[in-house]
Amino acid sequence: MKTLCVCLVIVLTTALFCRQAVAQDMSIATSEIVNNQILQTNLQIQINQQIQNNLDIQRNIMMLMLDDSNNINLKYNYLVTMKDNAQLVVHSKIYADTARHKTYLLFVDKKYSRKDTNRNRKIYVSQTLSIARKMGSGSSDKDWDKGMATDSCWMFKAISGNINAYAAFSEDGLGLTPPPLMAIQKGDGPIIKLSASNLKPMVEQDAGALKNIQKKNYYRAIEKYNHDAEKSAKK
């Protein structure tokens, strides 16, 4: 009888231990599921924010391109490198396709007659690797304004320094108004949408730059910060 009781205690103890182990495993599994769900939610929020930023940039670009009254999107000779590495010289302004949400150049192939439908050809940004505009009379890199191809538009570096700034147009900044900026980059970091909330952390405690951000003069704010940063580095 004593032996039977001992066996019964062992069985009950083992069962209780197994139940506790199972409960612990279930708790760990549940915790992992919750953590994974949180990570997935945070990732989706970041993706949605990036999509919204891209849409905002695209919308701003389209509005500027549809405004024929401005002098910031003129016709130039662009050297375009296609995805098959073929190169074309295209005399065009940068146009906006509002249906496809992409920018393009209009290439006029003069070997076709004016009545031929093949004469005008749209070169979409998504078909290209890069774009460049001849700025000077020489052949060095500094004589070219080189742009990168993104999913929706070409981006030209408008300001270089500790903070780089990018515009959707290739302009020399010699006009009455500076080129409209679309994106910014601190050092070699990621290129992100230009906004007050994104620019403020980049200029740190530069009072002059912050004052210009407050006035929404982002171009001047970036130039002020870059000037002060360069001056400080020389000390």
From TrEMBL:
Keywords: Signal
Signal sequence segment: 1-23
Lineage top rank: taxon: Bacteria
Record-given protein name: GLPGLI family protein
